[in-house]
Every structure is written in C-alpha cells, then in structure tokens.
Structures
1.
Amino acid sequence: MLDCAIVGGGPAGLTAGLYATRGGLKNVTMFEMGMPGGQITQSSEIENYPGFFDHTKTGMDFMDTWQEQCFHFGLKHEMKKVERVAKTGEHFTITLEGGEQVEAKTAIVCTGSVPKRAGFKGEDEFFGKGVSTCATCDGFFYKDKPVTVVGGGDTALEEAFYLSNICSDVYVVHRRDEFRATPQTLDRVMRKENIHLITDSVIEEAFGDTMGLAGVKIRNVKTNEIIQMDNTGLFVFVGHDVNNSVLRDENDKFICEMNDWGQVIVDLSMKTSIPGLYTAGDMRIEAPKQVVSAAGDGSVAALQVISYIQEQQ
C-alpha cells in the first residue's frame, strides 16, 4: 500500500513528490510514462523562473536538477501509464495499463493540459521558433516588436492586453465578427491603441526559415483576401485540452467535481470533492499555467496529503 500515488511527472508532480518524501512519507511513487519534466522540457530558454537566469540552459537542463533532488529523498518513479484512479472504500485503486492495480492511501493527480493547435500551415514547424502558447513565458522576447494573437475568448484578449504592454503592436486575429470574451475584457482591449482587431479572419500560414518565424498570412473568411504581415511572434490561444481521463470511472463519469471545461474543481488546498484526492498544476481550475505556480500547487497538495494521513491514523 502506497502512502501516496502521484500521477504525472511535470513540475507539479515532482514537487509533490519532493515535499511528500521530505515530509516523512516513506512509500511515495510517481507514475509517469516518459522522463519527468513536463511541457517545460520543450522550451529552448527559461527566463521567468526565480533564481534561474542562465540563457545557455534549455527547459530540459532546467528540469534535470529537479529530478535529481526529488529522487534523492526517496521518491520512486514508475514508467507506467495510469488508466484510472478510483476511490475504493477508504483507499484508492490505481489501475495501470495492462490491468495491474496498485493501492494507495492518497492520490495527487497532476496530468496537466495541452494547448489546442489552431491547425494552420507552419504551426508545428515554427512552434517554439516564433509560434507560442504562452505570452507570460515568451512575450518579453518580442519587446517593442509587433506580434499576432490568434483567438477570440477571454484568454486570447487578456493575453493580447498583456502583450500590448511589452510589444509595439498586437494584431488579434479572430474567425468571427464577434468575440466570446466578456464585455469588460473586450472593452479594455478596444481602448488600447496598439491592439488591432482583425475579425472574420484566420491564419492561413506561418512562414519563415531556419532562423524561425518571419511572418504570417491572414485570410478573410468572407472575401478570401489574403494579407501578409511580417512579424516574428505568433501567439495561439484557442483553448486547452485537459488531460483528465484518469479521473473517469468505468461508466465514463468523473469521480470528482469538474467545471464545464473539464478542469478539476479544487479549493486553495488543492482538495477535490473526494477526501484524500488532490490535483495540482494545469488541470485545476484557474491555473496560471506557469512552472512556478505548478510547483507551488504540488507543494500544497503534498503538505495536505501528510496532514490527511496523520488525521486518518
């Protein structure tokens, strides 16, 4: 019987493992199919994590030291895929690929989310080379330069507003003539002089060379007219797919409370509606989707696990 089963090996999962083992739990296993680290391992440069300011280091370099530190205190790593997490009596049953089952007193699920792709030509080719899904992470690289934002919801317009304080001009491309964002958000954006709304339009193509993105081609969906815009930053905000399948039961129903977007509803202690079950990182409600925030979530969840187990005893 595990004291705690951690599902997911990104910053939230690793930090949860560090705090749980260093806090005295002897039997903690993290289930992660590949090498731990999460989405940040795909980044070419880390600039906004406190205390880490080495421009020669990649996201992979950044996470290497996390793994060493977390495993030092006794965290175990199983390279196995978790199919389902279920509450069985007072404990949890972790069902792995192939049918193997592991029992645990508590569970912390931090399987994250994946930004949706818009599907235009060149999106994958230039992802990380000009195409981004994180204004907070990458906006500063385009200081005093023009950038393009794709999307029409609150996130897209909030990120466009954020970028407008860094970049010279922000061009927001939306396929409809009306935005899904709240009126307050839209009003704030429309009053910002360097934000330009391009409606009824889609990104037809992102183009560039080996050095990265050079510009975009924007197509009006009503007239099919294509305009070319030369800039080196393209931010895509068309939603996230939450990796929440492990929280579905055999009837495809969620075992804990979720919101309409498939994010787990938690309180400030990362507690779900199921006693002993916690979530952390990008899969929870109102997640900032930043490494530093995910790490904070993981620490909070682990401290709550320790308290929960002590109370049960």
2.
Amino acid sequence: MSENYKSIRLKKNEERRIKQGHVWIFSNEVDIKETPLKSFEAGEVVTVEASNGKVIGVAYINPNTLICGRIISRSAKARFNQGFIKKRIQAAQTLRELSFDEPYYRLVFGDADGLPGLVIDRFGDVFVAQITTAGMEKMKDVITTTIENLYHPRTLIYSNETSSRKLEGLPMYEEVAIGELPEEVLIEENGTKFNIPVSGGQKTGWFYDHRLGRKRLQEMVKGKRVLDVFSYLGGWGLEAAVAGASEVVCVDSSSSALDGVDRNAALNGVADKVTTYEGNAFDVLKVLISEGNKYDVVIIDPPAFVKRKKDIRSGSEGYRRINELAIRLVETDGILVSASCSHHMSRDALLNQVQLAARHLDRTVQLFDQAHQAPDHPVHPAIPETEYIKTFFFRVSKAW
C-alpha cells in the first residue's frame, strides 16, 4: 500500500505561480490556520492543496525556511522514493546525451531537472553531488544507491559544504559515499585537459556552465595576448592557450588554484605561454595598468557579486569597477569578455554597467556576441532562477 502524505494548504490565489510551473512555495503563501507549518518536520513530504482543497502537487517541506516547500511532482499519486529519483536522473542523462559524447558534464541541475536541492557533476567515473535542502538530504542514501546501480562509479563524493545548507538547518560536511577520494580527476573540455580537485576546490570542483563561452573564445585568440581574471584553474585562459594564444596571464586570489593552472598548463604543453599572478583581482589589475600592460583579449569572469536582491546596488558597482579596470587593459580594437553568474544581475543591468565603464573612460564598446550557460545547465522557463549565466563579447575601441 502506498504511503499517504499529510497536506499543506495554500492561501487564496497563492497557487497561481505554482500552477504556472514554478516549484517554490514560500512560507507566507501557506494557510497556517488550516495547516500549521510547525506541525511538519524538516524534509517531510506533503501533498499541496490550493485554497479550495484541490490537490496541485506533491512537495517536500521545511517549516523553518522562507522557501518552505519545493514541488517535486504535479501528480497527487507521486511518491518520493528510489523509483522517482531513478527516473529523474535517467531523464537528465538522456538530455545530456543530446549534447555530449564524453561523460564530463553536470548530470543533474536541481530544479531544472525536477530534483530540487540536488546537483550532480560527472567527471567520467567520478561523481560529485551537492545537496542543499532538508528534503533531499533525507534521500541521500537513496541517491547513493541509485547512482551506484545506474553508473557503478569509481567514486561518489558529497560536497555538502555550501553555505546555503545553513538556511535549511543542515550541517556542512564532505563525505565519500562510494569508493575512495582521488586527489584529482582528469576531464577534457574543448580540446583541453584539466586535472581538477574533487575535494577542497570551488563548489563541485569545476564550472561546466561556461563551456560554450570558452569554445567561442577559442575561435578568436590565435596569436593574441590574453588576460584571464578570476581564472580559478584556468578554464578560459588555458583553453585560449591550447587554441593558439601567444601569451596567457591568469589572475586569481587562490594560490592553490594557480598551482592548478601551472600543472594544467604543463599537462597541455602550453606552460611556456602561461604566467600567473596571485592577489585580489582589483589590486592586480591596477598594478598591471600602472606597468603599462595591454592585452588583445581580457576575460572577466568573477564570482557572483549579487547573491541576493539586496546586493544589487553594491554588486552593480562592483561589476562597473572591474569592467572599467579591464577596459583600461584592452588594446584598441581588442576584445573584452565580460561574464556574470549572478541571477539577480540581469542581462540588461550588466550591459549597462559595462557601457557606463566604457563611457567613463571615453571608449566605445560593441557587443558582437553572447554565450549562454551550457546545455547541461538547462533552464526551466517557469523558474527564472535556473537561468543565471551571462557572457558578453565586446570590441573595445576609441570613442567614436
């Protein structure tokens, strides 16, 4: 006999966004007189009802958070179990196979793949998962078993050290669930090999989301001097070097990341082209400017300056300042690649900050191409939060 879930009921008209396809339920949308949130456990699976009592889906819930529920299915018959997890991961796998021949990609992208609170990156036979919600944390053993049955991986690691877990009342930890922890794993992206850390690196160890932009960059760098700012392991810079750039400079605040740049440069036979500078990007760029350096291509790919709506003002100023420094380092008629991974920093807002930076320097910028997040980071049209990458390619000229 299938398990019967308790119900939560939404206030009048609060079901509209859910019916349109979004999966988040906010605590102020719940009718707490009919269904008190405090009567539920964190991670409990519930049936969701509209104000008239009609079932509109199944969700898991956390009564202690602003986003108190996440819809996992529109069907009242859905059961959050191993069969459910398996079908969703298999569906995600099928989508990736449309775009990738090699097993290097984000296998599961949370809400956009119908598995809210779960991210899984695949590095060949090594899988790195990250769980960010109490509802998905309760399914961890099921997720482990499902991945083991589907892929027979050499290693599965839970990189559950993201700060967003604190909001859910979850501990931060790293755990090797299957196999042993390798120091590094080898991947290939756009013809470039990278040894990446699966422990101690950023997030899940690699950023697959920018691979389309990096591939586009490779088409325009032959014989060029390239500056890669916020380089991490050198994704942009080393792919440029492999594509024929004459010189690449990588800037990052992490000495371990830059050690990775050096190792990966040697791995790809381009060590003689690559130089690294450790330090705060704003400070390093000011030094490069004071020394009179110029580059044919400058890439700015910072961490999210706007993590929350309330950060928009200060974050926007950060984007303007870093792009202004970058523009000062671009040769006349050279290329600026300006990216943002901040969902709350809209395309138009970022474009405006680059334009403000250019005008302040009496330069003209022409946007001639753009790149989107890679297809292993699908966008759910009803969930704007699943779209976050913006990458602009500008030509930088003297003022017209």
